[in-house]
């Protein structure tokens, strides 16, 4: 398995997890915060979309596809608002569209560039382009634990095990 295939597998696996674990969320469920400033499902969906959009724009030098207002409201360091005015369907659409663009980007990105230095602005934890591309594949897993907490709080049935 190549690095590219591994990252695509991570993207597909995380997408399956989010789809499976949020399929039965209503609009109200999608806005439940597990605690003060905790992240609800809508925030997670849009946060992942804007994060991927930002990373790809930085790596390619192309403009972001999503609006600056979405980036400001859902980007890294933003605070989840209990009622962000977004429906589950709207948040999911942004997530799905960004995910498709991300998967296409990874499939078409030249692996010979993985060893290049990461563009300015990425944390030292991701010193290379390959590290940033790896982050595209793993970032959703950082938020999956949050989704399982929300699911438990809503007394949703178990999905795995």
Give an account of the 3D structure.
This protein is an all-alpha fold. Helices cover 58% and strands 0% of the residues. It has helices spanning 3-22, 41-60, 68-74, 88-108, 129-153. The protein is globular and about 45 Å long.
Major sheet characteristics = none
Residue windows where pLDDT falls under 50 for at least 5 positions: none
Count the beta strands.
Answer: 0
Rg is 16 Å
Could you spell the SSE succession in H and E letters? HHHHH
Q: Structural class, from secondary structure content?
A: mainly alpha
Q: What spatial form do the alpha-carbon principal axes imply?
A: globular
Quaternary assembly: single chain
| Helical segment count | 5
Indicate the percent of residues in helices.
Answer: 55-70%
Mean model confidence by pLDDT:
95
**Percent in strands:** under 5%
Intertermini distance: 28 Å
Topology:
Blueprint: H1 3-22, H2 41-60, H3 68-74, H4 88-108, H5 129-153
Helix pairs in contact: 1-4, 1-5, 2-3, 2-4, 2-5
């Amino acid at each position: 398995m190549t690095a590219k295939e591994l990252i695509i597998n991570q993207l597909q696996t995380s997408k399956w997890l989010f789809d499976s674990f949020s399929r039965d969320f209503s609009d109200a469920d999608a806005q439940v915060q597990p605690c003060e400033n905790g992240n609800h499902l809508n925030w997670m969906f849009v946060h992942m979309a804007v994060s991927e959009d930002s990373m790809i724009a930085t790596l390619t030098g192309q403009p972001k596809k999503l609006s600056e207002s979405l980036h400001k409201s859902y980007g890294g360091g933003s605070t989840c608002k209990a009622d962000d005015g977004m429906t589950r369907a709207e948040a999911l659409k942004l997530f799905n569209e960004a995910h498709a663009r991300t998967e296409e980007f990874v499939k078409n990105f030249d692996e010979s560039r993985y060893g290049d230095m990461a563009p300015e602005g990425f944390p030292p934890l991701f010193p290379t382009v390959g590290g940033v591309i790896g982050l595209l594949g793993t970032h959703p897993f950082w938020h999956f634990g949050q989704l399982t907490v929300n699911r438990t709080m809503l007394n949703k049935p178990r999905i795995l095990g």
